[in-house]
Structure prediction request, 176 residues.
Amino acid sequence: MPEAKGIAAKAHYRETGPADRAAIRALQAEVYSSAIAAVSEALISGPAETLSLAADIDGSLIGHILLTPVAGPDRALALAPHAILPAWRDMQIGTELVRHALRLARQRGWRSVFVYGQPDYYRRFGFKSRTADCADVTWQGDRFLALELEEGALSAYRGPLDYPEAYLAVARAISG
Ligand SMILES: CC(C)(COP(=O)(O)OP(=O)(O)OC[C@H]1O[C@@H](n2cnc3c(N)ncnc32)[C@H](O)[C@@H]1OP(=O)(O)O)[C@@H](O)C(=O)NCCC(=O)NCCS
Prediction:
């Protein structure tokens, strides 16, 4: 779909700031629900190291992704929520947004990322269920995936992942 890929190349991928809060809330309310938008806001204003990125086109926010620090493995992040407005889907914008977020995470010295999501979608970035096996969580399975941003980052780790309460609230709300 060359035309759609062209649109993804035209989008601007950037970190968000306080001025984006209303647009992120509106986007998440449209993609998920206003309840999820509200709990996500607590997550965005969590630790300063939280990575929050947007995709925008002509100044209009059409996609958002969040990576939150988790305790356990050294310098590990958890990815969610990740949302693209319905009118802008299947144009590779979500893929580009994940790629930008992972690149920024690597630049900031993060060593691994965990996600609970669609394996077919996240596999394209190198996420694997096997890589997440080192983490002891109750939702272990095919949909629980991890990516090493630094080779071997998780190889010596065996133990729990300690998610912030706001992240668990978002995850519970998304999974219904
Ligand atoms: C998932 C989501 C972020 C993808 O964004 P997008 O911009 O449409 O994705 P892209 O255009 O980059 O990628 C499209 C590809 O992903 C695939 N895809 C899209 N949604 C998918 C899903 N839920 N499961 C598996 N594959 C999916 C498409 O089939 C397409 O495959 P292809 O590249 O092989 O043709 C978007 O559909 C969305 O916001 N969904 C609702 C919220 C959600 O489910 N978020 C993820 C969980 S946190």
